[in-house]
């Protein structure tokens, strides 16, 4: 039913690149072809090669370079009058904005990308842009609003037999079910995603699916050993393909699994590692989640109660600013678990009095 996975963001002279090409390989080839297109004055080709450069930088966690690259790709596409290429550049920019925690900007760019894709007759970039909008809402915890869009995109991807997009949609829906406590459904969806990704040779999608399975196996079954084994398998792919963001989330999940098993010192070490990785790539959502895990681990290891209260209160404010509802609820549960809500309020009162 599904063919081999392909990477539609590798365009022009880069269509020979595989979905499993390492990001350093993509960056080298993309930069070389981009320079050649610029020297030849080929704006359309420069736009499409620049897209691959932007995506490689983004996935490597090089935020500044990614930002410059997608904007240059958009300018080249506009100079060529290529609406579809403009849409792809906007998709890349919107995806980067989401990664940086700029959710309002992400939605604006992705909405424009979907519109340009439709007007330019490129159904793939339109689908990817709508998927980006769905993922943005899901990350913010707006499950009811984006659940139907996820299902719609899944149906479209299945109808076209597009393995990579099917895997993405399955994983998104699975994550919603996992976050709302429907663990059996989440497991089945992650498992299907892993099977399709494996059959289509989509190593990136397979790694994310294994991470989802590890999470469910840990929280539902308490099977720490199997969860860690799944994460180790996924980590091999992340390292081989230089997937910096996926690797950081893998490490954060390893912290989650160890924390649930009561292995708080080990969990602390993995959360610290993930936190450094997220900070290096300026990914605020991952940073906040790693901070939360670290704060909870340190609390179990005897950290001062007021320090825990202050950290959780600061996290709550940060997540409120980002608009991450599900993560904010996790902080509230942690404040209840460690009995720090009153301390946090008292500290806020003291701060407010000092300001006055």
Automatic annotation (TrEMBL):
Entry keywords, A to Z: Repeat, TPR repeat
What the entry lists under Gene3D superfamilies is as follows:
Tetratricopeptide repeat domain
Query: Per its UniProt record, what SUPFAM superfamilies does this chain match?
Result: HCP-like (SSF81901)
What is the protein's name according to its record?
Tetratricopeptide repeat protein
């Amino acid at each position: 039913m599904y063919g081999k996975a392909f990477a539609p963001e590798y365009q022009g002279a880069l269509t020979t690149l595989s979905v499993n090409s390492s990001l350093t390989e993509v960056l080298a080839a993309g930069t070389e072809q981009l320079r050649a297109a610029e020297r030849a004055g080929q704006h359309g080709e420069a736009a499409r090669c620049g897209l691959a450069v932007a995506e490689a930088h983004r996935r490597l966690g090089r935020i500044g370079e990614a930002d410059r690259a997608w904007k240059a790709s958009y300018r080249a596409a506009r100079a060529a009058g290529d609406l579809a290429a403009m849409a792809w550049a906007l998709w890349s920019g919107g995806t980067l904005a989401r990664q940086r925690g700029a959710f309002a900007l992400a939605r604006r760019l992705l909405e424009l990308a979907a519109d340009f894709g439709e007007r330019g007759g490129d159904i793939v970039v339109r689908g990817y842009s709508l998927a980006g909008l769905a993922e943005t809402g899901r990350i913010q915890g707006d499950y009811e609003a984006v659940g139907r869009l996820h299902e719609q995109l899944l149906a479209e991807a299945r109808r076209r037999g597009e393995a990579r997009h099917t895997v993405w949609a399955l994983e998104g829906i699975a994550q919603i079910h996992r976050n709302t406590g429907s663990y059996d459904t989440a497991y089945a969806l992650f498992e299907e995603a892993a099977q399709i990704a494996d059959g289509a040779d989509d190593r990136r999608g397979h790694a994310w699916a294994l991470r989802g399975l590890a999470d469910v196996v840990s929280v539902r079954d308490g099977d720490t050993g199997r969860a860690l084994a799944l994460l180790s398998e996924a980590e091999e792919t992340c390292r081989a393909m230089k997937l910096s963001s996926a690797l950081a989330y893998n490490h954060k999940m390893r912290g989650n699994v160890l924390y649930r098993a009561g292995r708080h010192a080990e969990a602390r070490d993995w959360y610290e590692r993930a936190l450094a990785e997220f900070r290096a790539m300026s990914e605020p959502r991952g940073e906040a989640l790693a901070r939360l895990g670290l704060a909870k681990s340190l609390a179990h290891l005897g950290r001062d109660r007021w320090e825990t209260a202050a950290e959780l209160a600061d996290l709550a404010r940060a997540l409120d600013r980002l608009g991450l509802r599900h993560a904010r609820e996790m902080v509230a549960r942690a404040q209840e678990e460690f009995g720090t809500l009153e301390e946090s309020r008292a500290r806020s009162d003291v701060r407010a009095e000092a300001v006055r």
